[in-house]
Structures are given as C-alpha cells and as structure tokens.
Design brief:
Layout (H helix, E strand, L loop, with lengths): L2 H10 L3 H19 L18 H6 L10 E8 L4 H14 L23 E5 L5 H13 L6 E6 L4 E8 L6 H15 L13 H15 L2 H10 L3 H4 L12 E8 H5 L8 H17 L5 E5 L18 E5 L8 H12 L3 H11 L5 E6 L11 E9 L7 E8 L2 E8 L6 H15 L13 H13 L17 H15 L1 E2 L2 H6 L3 H16 L16 E2 L1
Parallel strand pairs: 2-3, 6-8, 8-10, 12-13
Antiparallel strand pairs: 1-4, 1-9, 3-4, 5-11, 6-7, 10-11
Helix pairs in contact: 4-6, 11-14, 15-16, 15-18
C-alpha cells in the first residue's frame, strides 16, 4: 500500500470534527507560510524612508490643510528639563528612522536632523491659552518629523506634547515613544533597553507588507472573512483635510474601582459599555464599528514604532453571551492573517461606522517614581478614517476618553448625547450577591434624572413639567429599551407622563416576565429578556 493510499484511508476514518480540525490546522499553516517575508529585493541602504501600502493609499488624500497628529501627556512630579532633553537625544539615537525622509520628489517628510527637536515653554503650563496655542502650533507646523514640546510649571505639573506628520506614526506608536521618553528621563530605562529602529528596518516592514498583499491565498482569506456588510454599506473616504471637533471624558480610579468587579479587566468593562452603547445607537442599521487591534501586527515588527492602522470589525447588532475580551480575541484570530488587507481596505475605503482605539499606556516611570502621568489627551488624530473616532487611553490611575468627529457628518449635540448614554452604562453599579436590586420605580427615576439633569424627581411629577420635551421622549424610549430591555411605545410615554403611572403600567403588563414587583425585587441570576409592550 502506497503512502498516499494510507493517508487517504486514515483520512476516511476521521470523524467530521476531526476532519474540520485538520483542515483548520492546514489552513493556519498555509496562512503562516504566506505571511513569511519573501527574499529581500530592495536596497535598504541610505536614508530614504519608503511608504507602506496603507500610507500610500492615504497620501493622495492629504491637503495643505491636513494637520499633524498631536498628543499631550499631563505629568505630575519633578520633571527635569535637562533630563528630558537628554532623553529626547537618546530617543533620536535609538529611533533614527523617525528623523525621517520620504521625499519622492518633495512630496512630504524629509527633515533628517541629528536629533528630534524639543521646545520648552518655561512656567507656561498653568496657562490654558499657552497650552492651546502650543497645540495649535504643533498641529500646523511644517516640520514633519516627530517633535516634542514641554510646557513646564512651577506647580509641579508639566505638559509633554508630541506631534508628527499623520502618516509617520499612529497614535499607539506615539504613546509608545512617549513612554520611552519618560522612562529615560526618570532613569527607569537605559538606551540599551530600547529596541533600535532605523530607515532600513522600517523599509523592511514596508516591503514585507507589500509582498503580503500580493499573496493570492491571503487575498482569498480576506474575501472569505470580510464582513458582508462592508459591501452593502455606503462608505466614506478617509478625512484628511477636515478640522475635527473634540469632546473628552476623564474617569479616575475611584470611579472605576467602584464599578469594576474583582477579576474583570478594565478593558472589558469599558469595551463592553461602549459596545452596548454603540449597539443601541446603531441597532437600526446593519453596519460595523471597529476596535483597534495592534496585536494584528506581525510579531517580527512588534517593537517597531510606525504607522499601523489595524482594526477588527465588530457588528453593531451582535448579542452574544461572551465577555468583550473573548469576543475581540476571537476576532483577532480570524483577522490577523489578513491584517494587511484589512488595513489597506480601511485606508482606501474609509468607514461610515465609528472606530474605537484602545490604548494601554505604560508610563515608563514605575510606581515608585515621583514622576507620574495623570492624563493623556489626543488633541489631533491627523486623519479620520471614520467621521467618528474614540481614543481611549488606560492609565495606572484612570482612563482618558477623547472623541474626534467631523462636524459635517455628526453634530455636537449627538456626540454629547452618546457620551451621556455611555456614562449611564459606566455608572451602573455592580450588584453584590445578597443585596437587592433597585425597584422599577427607582430604575425609571434614575433614567429620568440622567436624561433631565435633575438631582431629584418625584414619582408623581410630570415628565414635561420637569422640563422634558418631545425630542427627549424619543431618547427616553431609547434609554428604557437599553437599560430595562423594554420596548415601550412612544404613545404610552406621551400618555403616562409620571413615574408612578408608567411603572404601574409596566408592572401590570409585564411584571412576571421581567421579575419585578411593586416592592424592591430580589436579585435574580437569570438574564432578563427584552419585552415588547
């Protein structure tokens, strides 16, 4: 019996599950082989910095009004300007490729100074006007290499600003470099502990990326895994010349720890709240939103700071009994083999749905260091791949959330309403075993307080007498559906305008299915099903 015959016979004896597992293993092996760098064909000598496929796709969209990406770190502690200057000089030595040169007949970049520039504004950090002016100056500066500025205050607070051309570094890479600057400035890192990068290494990534996109098998995998809704929704070109507006939130550790139960990651808590919030806002459309996934990058380039717009799509109507981390991790395993196609698709087609960047900022100073990062603010995204992008940065003692949006697509009132809804989800207290959950009257009262911005609401007070109007009735219906899993007809909300009347109606029509009674109901382990009245 030949070896091929033996193999065929062995395959025939496998169960369907074993055959599927074998196919998956073979597919993964083929994927791995397809992503291996091919033989180098480009001369990497010299200072020329090549653009990757994603950068090349975005380059024609740049205009004279395109702004640099700008990042701010609010630092508390004795930050020495001498140590900071020395750290920037060391960073220049370790990341010489960032001093840059892309040229292509002066289309962009160039610079190539000996060190990255560091500007200082002594005793100016206490001036909001000075900070705003510095951010605006860096956003419009013609110097396209990475540059840093420090607004130094006598009150022991400093503002470290980083800026660069939007195609040179993504926001994650800028945070990575900022942590290295602080680690060097505080003495918690040495130059040898930082991986060196230069133009040659960046160009090797560029060549690898282009070669991956030529792999037919990976293109077929992208066609197979690509969410079908991407072909059916209207998409927007990436927005490079717009001046986005911004809204920000800051959540401190006391707020977070009071609401994150033991064993749950902060990322899962925040990500799940955003997922549920956006799900409610986008439930009427079959569209996607995107979560930043830097681990999609090939492992050989993990320590390379650069431009990596990697995201994974999440369906807006997805309802699964999985923790957010599990859901995202499963998507990573599906899309990491085709991350280059995914990245190029976004940079070419853009997205009509929101994008969420989730960053973990390792301050690089250590818990015992007197230098601590208190806030991280993304002032300018440089280029919007979507008309609505959320930058989340998790710090040691809090979370910063910055929303950038194109005002021609989305209004400030819509963004404020979405952030209010997000805070409603984030404020939900974790129920402790053995305690009772709020009654229906209490839940409705809290919804009214949040919506109407009232500290007290009487159970017999009219919604409209409290200041509510017709537009807020629609939002009230939306919040009740989100938080109570009830689809209350709009006509009922107009007719039953007090908490007592509305709660009694719900209890009379759906109390058994929801597990509520007129008293405070005991906590139930069973999930509540959405009801339709």
């Amino acid at each position: 019996m030949t070896s091929s015959t033996k193999t065929t016979a062995a395959f025939a004896e496998l169960s369907p599950e074993q055959r599927q597992a074998l196919f998956d293993k073979l597919r993964q092996r083929k994927l791995t082989n397809a992503r291996r760098p091919a033989t180098e064909t480009i001369d990497h000598t010299g200072d020329t910095l090549a653009l990757g496929p994603a950068q090349t796709a975005l380059l024609p969209l740049l205009t004279a009004t395109t702004r640099n990406r700008v990042l701010e770190l609010v630092i508390e502690g004795p930050l020495s300007l001498t140590a900071l200057r020395a750290a920037v000089a060391l960073l220049s030595d370790r990341h010489s490729g960032l001093r840059v040169r892309f040229d292509s007949d002066r289309n962009a970049f160039v610079t190539l100074d000996q060190t990255l520039p560091l500007r200082t504004f002594a005793s100016a950090a206490d001036s909001a006007e000075a900070l705003q002016a510095a951010c605006a100056q860096l956003a419009t500066d013609q110097t396209q290499a990475l540059q840093l500025a420090c607004l130094y205050a006598e009150e022991n607070v400093s503002h470290l600003l980083l800026a660069c051309h939007p195609l040179l570094l993504d926001s994650g890479s800028m945070l990575f470099l900022a942590s290295q600057v602080l680690a060097l400035a505080s003495g918690n890192a040495t130059p040898d502990s930082i991986h060196a990068t230069d133009s040659a290494l960046l160009n090797r990534y560029t060549q690898w990326s282009a070669q991956v996109l030529e792999q037919k098998f990976l293109a077929q995998e992208w066609a197979r895994l690509k969410p079908r809704s991407l072909d059916s929704i209207a998409r927007n070109k990436p927005l490079a010349g717009v001046l986005p507006q911004q809204q920000s939130l800051h959540l401190d550790n006391d707020f977070i720890q009071a609401r994150v139960s033991g064993g749950e990651s902060i990322k899962n808590w925040m990500g799940d709240a955003i997922h549920r919030c956006l799900q409610g806002w986008l439930s009427h459309q079959e569209i996607l939103y995107w979560f930043s996934a830097p681990q999609l990058r090939d492992e050989q380039f993990e320590t390379l700071p650069g431009f990596f717009p990697y995201f994974v799509p999440v369906t807006s109507n997805e309802r699964e009994p999985l923790a957010f981390n599990q859901r995202l991790n499963r998507l990573h395993t599906r899309f990491s083999p085709v991350s280059e196609q995914l990245s190029l698709d976004l940079c070419t087609q853009g997205s009509s749905a929101p994008m969420v960047h989730y960053h973990w900022f390792e301050a690089g100073t250590g818990d015992a260091s007197p230098i601590q990062v208190r806030r991280v603010i993304h002032h300018q995204p440089g280029i919007l791949l979507s008309p609505f992008e959320i930058q989340i940065t998790e710090l040691l003692d809090g979370i910063n959330l910055d929303v950038h949006f194109d005002p021609t697509h989305i209004g400030m009132d819509q963004v404020n309403a979405l952030l209010r809804d997000l805070m409603v989800y984030l404020r939900e207290e974790k129920e402790i075993e053995g305690t009772s959950r709020p009654s229906l009257h209490e839940r409705l009262s809290q919804i009214w307080k949040d919506l109407l911005q009232k500290t007290e609401v009487g159970n017999d007070q009219s919604f409209f007498e409290l200041g509510g109007h017709s537009l807020q009735v629609t939002e009230l219906k939306f919040r009740i559906k989100q938080q109570l899993k009830l689809d209350v007809p709009i006509s009922v909300l107009y007719e039953l305008t007090t908490i007592n009347k509305l709660a009694n109606f719900i209890l009379a029509t759906h109390a058994t299915g929801l597990g509520w009674n007129t008293a405070t109901a005991a906590n139930s382990e069973e999930d509540e099903e959405e009801g339709v009245l």
